[in-house]
DNA sequence: TCACAAGCTAAAGAAATGCTAAACTTTACT
DNA sequence: AGTAAAGTTTAGCATTTCTTTAGCTTGTGA
């Protein structure tokens, strides 16, 4: 369950948003002023902050800066129509997105999702259309999920950790097995072959390349 | 100093990014359209490209594909919130990462670092337009990749390690074979010839020179 | 200008390297 | 214990790369 901190002085808007967000499955925490918002933030760090600019006690930019100084949490700013030209300074104050009032709740919802997705994606790397989510242990190609065995996933993770670099069989062995294998073992080759065939099956051919005499690398696609 | 090519039609965003990136120590080159971006790229290949999707003249995916067709440079795409579903096709067009607008500059900065780290093999040497990446076992000439055999790559690596120095056949043998070969073997000559022909094929003639009676050296280009 | 050494080239056989399929072993789960 | 999935080994095959050979070209000094 995602927690959202709403800093908004107008009770009417606050109430409306609380309803909308609650229905969408978010837990909403409401603060009516800049100071109380900052206090609330310290008590329980939310997953996202919605900040109204027109606060009575503190300037919105100031609040954004203070939040940003101590927390990584994404901030969406609500601003009146006449303050549009402030958007640039706002963004550099630490806001991640802004919405001009009045706005449609659905749009706010969409932007919230975008921001949350941004943060979650932390451990994601991609090469070409290949996305590797380390935390989720998931690999996507063209939005489609690939079913990889543990060894295959580790192998791909290693290669994607330094795109372009050629990993020798020895390096791969050290990373996946923690030691060197027998001199004449070709386990690595076999796992490479299996991984490659699953990649190809999904249409992701040409990324996993053999560098003869040295090892393997993940590179930008090459004609097959 | 890393060079970033920014392809962005909105002058306001371009200016903001130019400031931010400049402060972070990058050299920023700004192109306001897809065509001019491609031209700029050809003039001086940057270390990274930031590409806005909403260009007036060319489709963003098209630009990405054209860049990718000729260069290995990493591409980060900026896309409007309503085009999120295009990310998949974008990634397979050759983009390495994408960011949904608006975004926090710090996040862009982080992603730039990720991309540059991925690409850097650490050790890289270059003479003229010839770049040799040891970790990637890759040789680029004018952004274009050369396919070299192991011996050819080692040979070029050796020569490029002390640009200008003349290496005797004996020295070359010691480095590539770990010993001296028979007196009347001309393996070195043959590998030199093969390397030279691959270089020439890519347009990189005039670098690999013969010093009669002594050996071979890699020097600044000379008329052919 | 000629002769000879040094270097270049092309081609063929030898060697090394990687790929694949299939059998076998281990592991995790029922 | 039985099954299914994953991991490993083996061995033969295909391909690339390396080396050698032999004849050709080029540069240099008499």
Per-chain topology:
2 copies of one chain form a homodimer.
Chain A: E1 3-7, H1 11-23, E2 27-31, H2 34-43, E3 48-52, H3 60-70, E4 75-79, H4 87-93, E5 97-100, H5 105-120, E6 124-127, E7 130-133, E8 138-141, E9 144-146, H6 150-161, E10 167-168, H7 169-177, H8 187-201, E11 208-211, E12 215-218
Parallel strand pairs in A: 1-2, 1-3, 3-4, 4-5
Antiparallel strand pairs in A: 6-7, 7-8, 8-9, 10-12, 11-12
Helix pairs in contact in A: 2-3, 6-8
The structure holds a DNA duplex (30 and 30 nucleotides).
Task: Kindly summarize this structure in a few lines.
2 copies of one chain form a homodimer. Chain A has 224 residues and is an alpha/beta fold.
Defining traits:
DNA-binding; alpha/beta; five-stranded parallel sheet; elongated; 12 strands; 8 helices; homodimer
Largest two-chain interface = A-B, 34 and 31 residues
Helical content of chain A stands at 40-55%
What is the residue-mean pLDDT of chain A, rounded to a whole number? 82
The structural class of chain A is alpha/beta
Poorly predicted regions of chain A are: none
SSE pattern of chain A: EHEHEHEHEHEEEEHEHHEE
What kind of oligomer do you see?
homodimer
The strand line-up of the biggest sheet of chain A is: 2-1-3-4-5
Cα-atom radius of gyration of chain A: 24 Å
The biggest sheet of chain A, with number of strands, parallel, antiparallel or mixed sense and barrel status, is: 5 strands, parallel
Q: Given the C-alpha coordinates, what overall shape of chain A results?
A: elongated
Distance between the termini of chain A: 45 Å
* Tally of DSSP β-strands of chain A: 12
**Number of helical segments with 4 or more residues of chain A:** 8
Beta percentage of chain A is 15-25%
């Amino acid at each position: 369950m995602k927690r959202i901190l709403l800093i908004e002085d107008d009770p009417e808007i606050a109430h409306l948003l609380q309803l909308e967000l609650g229905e969408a499955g978010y837990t909403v925490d409401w603060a009516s002023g800049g100071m109380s918002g900052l206090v609330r933030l310290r008590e329980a760090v939310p997953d996202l902050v919605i900040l109204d600019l027109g606060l009575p006690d503190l300037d919105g930019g100031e609040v954004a800066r203070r939040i940003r100084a101590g927390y990584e949490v994404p901030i969406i700013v609500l601003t009146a129509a006449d303050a549009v030209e402030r958007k640039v300074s706002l963004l550099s104050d630490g806001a991640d997105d802004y919405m001009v009032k009045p706005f449609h709740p659905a749009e706010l919802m969409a932007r919230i999702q975008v921001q949350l997705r941004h943060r979650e994606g932390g451990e994601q790397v991609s090469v070409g259309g290949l996305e590797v989510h380390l935390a989720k242990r998931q690999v996507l190609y063209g939005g489609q999920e690939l079913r990889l065995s543990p060894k295959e996933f580790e192998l791909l993770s290693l290669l994607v950790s330094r795109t372009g670099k050629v990993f020798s069989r020895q390096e791969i062995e050290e990373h996946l097995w923690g030691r060197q294998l027998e001199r004449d073992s070709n386990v690595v080759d076999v796992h490479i072959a299996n991984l490659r065939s699953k990649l190809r099956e999904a249409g992701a051919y040409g990324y996993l390349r053999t560098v003869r005499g040295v090892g393997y690398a993940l590179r930008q696609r090459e004609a097959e």
